[in-house]
Design goal:
Rossmann fold, 14 strands, 11 helices, six-stranded mixed β-sheet, alpha/beta, Hypothetical Protein, Haloacid Dehalogenase-like Hydrolase, Chain: A, domain 2, 2 domains, 272 residues
Amino acid sequence: MDIKLIAIDMDGTLLDSSNRLTERTRKAIDMAKKKNIEVVIATGRVLKSALYYSDMLKLDSYIAACNGAIVVDNKGRDIFRKPIDKKKLEKIMEIGHNMSVYFHFYNEDTFFTKTYVKEIVEYYSSSNGKFTGQSIDVDIYEKMEDISSRTDLDVFKFLFIDNNPDKLEQLRENLNLVEGISISKSWANNLEVMEEGISKGRSLEHLCQLMNISLENTMAIGDNENDLSMLSLAGLSVGMGNGAKAVLENVDYVTEDNDHDGVARAIERFVL
C-alpha cells in the first residue's frame, strides 16, 4: 500500500502512559516525513496541547484538535473551525449541572470549569501535571451566564468525567435529547460533546481533499471510540494494543500498546 498520509491520535496512542514521546516513535515519524509522507495529529485535546507536541516532533502538516472541531495548518492558522452553538451550550451545561457530573470545556487554549476539583485542575494545569509547559490556562467560572453571555468565546468541546458507568450512560441518554450535537468518548470514564457533524473522520476527509490525497492512501492509528470515524475511512486502520474493544474489533491491524512503541512499530511495518 502506498501510504501518503498518517493520521495519529495522541492520548493512548502517540503518547505513552506518562505523556511522553519515545525516541523510537520520534525516529519513525521523522523517517516517514523524509519519505514525504504527511503526518497529521488528530486529537480530542485542546489545540494548544496539540501544537505543543507537533512542535516537539517538528511536524509541518495539519492538526485536527478537539476531535476535528478546529483544524489548523502548519503555521497554526485556522482552516476550519466549528464551535458549539450558544443555545446548545446552555443546554449541555444545564444537563451536566443537574446530574452533578463533573465537566469542563475549552476553546483553543483554556479549560473552563465551574466545579473546582483539585486533582483535575492540577492534572490540566500548565505549571504541573499532564499539561506541564503547554501554556494552557484553567478558568473557574461562577455562573452559567458568565459563559453564555460571552461573545468572544468559542467552545469547541465538552468533556464529562465520571467513574460510574451507569451514570455516564444516563448522561449520554440525556445529551442525546439535545439536537445538533456529536457525542463520543476517548476513555472509559468520559463523554465528549462537540457540534453536530464533528469527528476525526470528517477532518481526515477534508484534509485529503485539501491535499489531493485518496483516502485509500492513508493510515490512521487510534485507541478509542472517538477514533473510529477516521479508522473506518482510512485505507489502513491500526488499533493500539491498549485500545478499546470496539476499536480492536474494527481495524485492519493491531499494533503494540502505547507503552511499547505501538505507533512506531506500525509505521515501521507499513511505511518504512
